[in-house]
């Protein structure tokens, strides 16, 4: 396998090849995602929702993110592994931000970190980048700020927020980020941002004018039945498949048809 690097992602944008990114939080899933040729695996703080069952991404801790990231890194042959800095691990001050990023790099073996925000976290971004740690930005609907937004609806529909987003994207490029996630913003704005910078813009609910796409793996596999945003395309119906499997097993155990003669010693 030729490993994906932050540089190869920037080259992919140059060559017009879109980047395929998915989340993963554990070894077994990451092994399948990596084997399928997904370019970037994000150890997202969405683990707080899909793995731990929290309503928001705020509760997950740095230690928990490192546990997930360590499990993912053990499975990877090719993909670039990006790890979210969780809420509270980088907002207080730039030194703490760098310490958190260093812990992720040293303890998990991940290849890069992702932080939510633009201008507000400029000094933290600088410090982390100056330490040689690759950074992916994240703008638009940044879920760690959900209590500020008060809603999960599309961001930057108004002129002022769209202008700030555009200048934040330019700032992230100028500081040296290797890519930016743009979440839930109008497709026209996302395309404009992608065309204004040379680093890849990876969208989720940001239309088809960007340089790549990311989805939460449990969502695209159809494991999360209750979650139905417009941007989500389901590539499997694992909720139905898994329910069938569990019911089949339950029935076989109850009826004593499992194990059969061939399935015992
Ligand atoms: O945590 C996450 O899964 C993310 C993606 C949705 C971009 O940040
Ligand atoms: Na995230």
From TrEMBL:
One GO cellular component, as annotated: cytoplasm
Subcellular locations according to the entry: Cytoplasm
Pfam families attached to this UniProt entry: Pantoate_transf
Entry's Gene Ontology BP terms: methylation; pantothenate biosynthetic process
Catalytic residues (UniProt): 183 (proton acceptor)
Primary role: Catalyzes the reversible reaction in which hydroxymethyl group from 5,10-methylenetetrahydrofolate is transferred onto alpha-ketoisovalerate to form ketopantoate.
Subunit field text: Homodecamer; pentamer of dimers.
Official protein name in the record: 3-methyl-2-oxobutanoate hydroxymethyltransferase
Species annotation: Salegentibacter holothuriorum
Gene: panB
